[in-house]
Amino acid sequence: MKCAYSSNIGAKRKVNQDACLAATIENSGRKYYVFAVADGLGGHRSGEIASQMAVDYIKEKLSDVENYFDYDEMYHFVNAINHEIIDVSRNCEECLGMATTLTMCILDGSRLGVIHVGDSRAYRINKEGMEQLTKDHSLVQVLVDEGKITSVEASVHPQKNVITRALGTDDIVQPDLYDYQVTTEDVILICSDGLYNMVDEGAIREIVLTYSLEDATKELINLANHNGGNDNITVVLFNPKEEVTAND
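RESULT FIELD:
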């Protein structure tokens, strides 16, 4: 297993509200690799606290979950994070209304579970192409699904940053759980919208396939900033076949 990750404030923001995670979890004698990106909502106060709470909760509590590929168990786990964020928000005036996205990948051999709330994304990248593994919980995605706009129109829509699900906004959140098979030829990317809104998929794929994972994280962030850096930028890359490293 090889991994590299980095988070950057971007060119326009005063605070980095993103958080990310790469960790190894021991559970019932098995080793799992866990990766996550949480993007604190820019329009909400204390988004950086909400996103850090999400990744801290994963580090501290994920090993208590029995089956990472069971929807009911992961539903309850994600809602436990949601309740923690809401409880802090309601008891701290400075944190009132804080919220975050969460996209988490759990790797068990060749099996990849993806747990997802919001509009951060996970992708599979290989020589065959680039596949988005998650579906945005956003207003523009609803409009695309209804046939009212195209995906190209969605990418430039004035309300493209309006999301329909997040941790911290409602008492109950409905996460998506995806179950994939991956190979040693795949590179998995998890990123906040600060990357994919600034860099098109073709450029992302070319960089990931050209550079080492460590250098690719730097190149992706540099290009996002070069193209405007309108938001915080967080990139997690991992490949199932080599050793874990990281760059913060």
